[in-house]
UniProtKB/TrEMBL annotation:
Coiled-coil region list: none
Gene3D superfamilies: 3.40.50.1400
Chain's role: Catalyzes the ferrous insertion into protoporphyrin IX.
Annotated residues for binding of Fe(2+): 224, 305
PANTHER family named among the record's database cross-references: FERROCHELATASE, FERROCHELATASE, MITOCHONDRIAL
Entry keywords, A to Z: Cytoplasm, Heme biosynthesis, Iron, Lyase, Metal-binding, Porphyrin biosynthesis
Entry protein name: Ferrochelatase
Annotated SUPFAM superfamilies: Chelatase
Name of the gene this protein is made from: hemH
TM regions (residue ranges): none
Lineage per the UniProt record: Bacteria, Pseudomonadati, Pseudomonadota, Alphaproteobacteria, Rhodospirillales
PROSITE patterns: FERROCHELATASE
Any Pfam family matching the protein: Ferrochelatase
Length: 383
């Protein structure tokens, strides 16, 4: 967690008129946002998490009156056990939390160290989860209370989707709706084609393959899926995934015949984006591909979908259908290349804000009007 104690310049009493509110120093908040994860693998922890996640209308676009009865009766009676098993197989037992949480915290710690080494404590870096803990709304409030009058929201989804990026930002905006004195907000745009991101991915492939005793016949680039309907309704995610896959292949200098893409983690019975990862892995093995490497560039951190579904279930599928060697290229996680890439994006998206923040560290801001001098309604707002 970020150190959110008030900045030393926050209570500069020398310049403050008597009885005046404390005006915090001007800091910048950077809030990393990720999906979220259950607190435990038992039935009730899983149920709580899935209920919150699957009740989000950005995720399931079925009218509430139809969806809620199905969710309560069908999904939440069976899925918690099934998914609980998957989470249990990858759980970080040392910290008693899911890998997604451990890695997101490590990413925030790494980014904070890199940013503060250059910009000092004027920039505060924190992290939060859309579902479960640590929640987004209190994190936004903590940043504001720590003196951040400008906040950059950084959803850790390289390919924008309304189901992930937008709902994470919505949640931060919900906190702003309750604030009288809102911080200014920026959001990090989709970075699916950012050269630094593509380069970090390509280097992770090269690093990983250099350690393998075999050369893959094929690289499968697997993304989390989405209902096809979301694409038809205008979600750009599918196109962004395809662009990432193409740019990665071009950066690696591999021919089209050696790289495929697919979509995993289908949920429910509707049609999702195709080709499906499990069907592709099976077909590749049956077509005679013997050595397969798989990468999941849409996940900033390893999680149940990469560690259990890709490196577990899909590995088994490939080997069962005639494949001989399978290797999963880990997500960028808290690797220094990733931290450097995140820092580059933060610096770009904070342009125009960072120098002002450096200045503010030396010149505490003091509101010129004492609270008592203001008319009643304004006094309330002022305090
Ligand atoms: C039911 C609809 C779902 C949509 C739409 C969806 C989109 C989507 N999700 C991610 C990233 C992650 N999803 C993760 C887990 C997960 N996803 C769904 C459902 C949808 N996702 C469920 C029910 C679950 C929970 C696990 C399970 O029961 O299968 C995770 C992992 C979280 C973890 O704790 O490890 C991530 C990350 C993206 C990128 C995306 C669309 C673009
Ligand atoms: Fe998902
Ligand atoms: Fe899954």
């Amino acid at each position: 967690m970020a150190d959110l104690r008030p900045h030393p310049t926050a209570a500069d009493t020398r310049h403050r008129p008597p009885g005046h509110m404390t005006v915090p120093a001007r800091r910048i908040g950077v809030l990393l946002l990720n999906l979220g994860t259950p607190e435990g693998t038992d039935y009730w922890s899983m149920r709580r998490y899935l209920k919150e996640f699957l009740s989000d209308p950005r995720v399931i676009e079925i009218p509430k009156l139809i969806w809620q009865p199905l969710l309560q009766t069908l999904v939440l009676t069976t899925r918690p056990q099934k998914s609980g098993k998957a989470y249990a197989s990858i759980w970080n037992r040392e910290r008693n939390e899911s890998p997604l949480k451990t890695i997101t915290r490590d990413q925030a710690d790494g980014l904070r160290a890199a940013i503060q080494a250059q910009y000092g404590e004027t920039v505060v870096v924190d992290w939060a989860m859309r579902y479960g803990q640590p929640a987004i709304q209190p994190a936004v409030q903590r940043l504001k209370d720590a003196g951040c009058d400008r906040i950059l929201l950084f959803p850790l989804y390289p390919q924008y989707s309304a189901t992930t990026t937008a709902t994470a930002c919505d949640q931060a905006f919900r906190q702003l709706m309750s604030m009288r004195w809102q911080p200014a907000i920026r959001t990090v745009p989709s970075y699916h084609d950012d050269p630094a991101y593509i380069d970090a991915l390509a280097r992770s492939v090269e690093r990983h393959l250099a350690e393998l005793p075999w050369v893959p016949d094929m690289l499968l680039v697997s993304f989390h899926g989405l209902p096809e309907r979301n694409l038809e309704l205008g979600d750009p995610y599918y196109c962004f995934c395809l662009k990432t896959a193409r740019l990665l292949r071009e950066r690696l200098g591999w021919p089209e015949t050696r790289v495929r893409h697919s979509f995993q983690s289908r949920f429910g019975r509707t049609e999702w984006l195709k080709p499906y990862t499990d069907a592709t892995v099976t077909a590749l093995a049956e077509e005679g591909v013997k050595r397969l490497a798989v990468i999941a560039p849409g996940f900033a951190s390893d999680c149940v979908e990469t560690l259990e579904e890709l490196d577990g279930e899909n590995r088994e599928l490939f080997l069962e259908h005639g494949g001989e060697a399978f290797s999963f290229v880990p997500c960028l996680n808290a690797h220094p290349d990733h931290i450097e890439m995140l820092k580059g994006i933060v610096e770009r998206e904070l342009s125009g804000w960072l120098p002002a923040a450096r200045q503010a560290a030396h010149h505490p801001v003091v509101h010129p009007v004492p609270a008592q001098a203001l008319p009643r309604p304004l006094r309330a707002a002022h305090g």
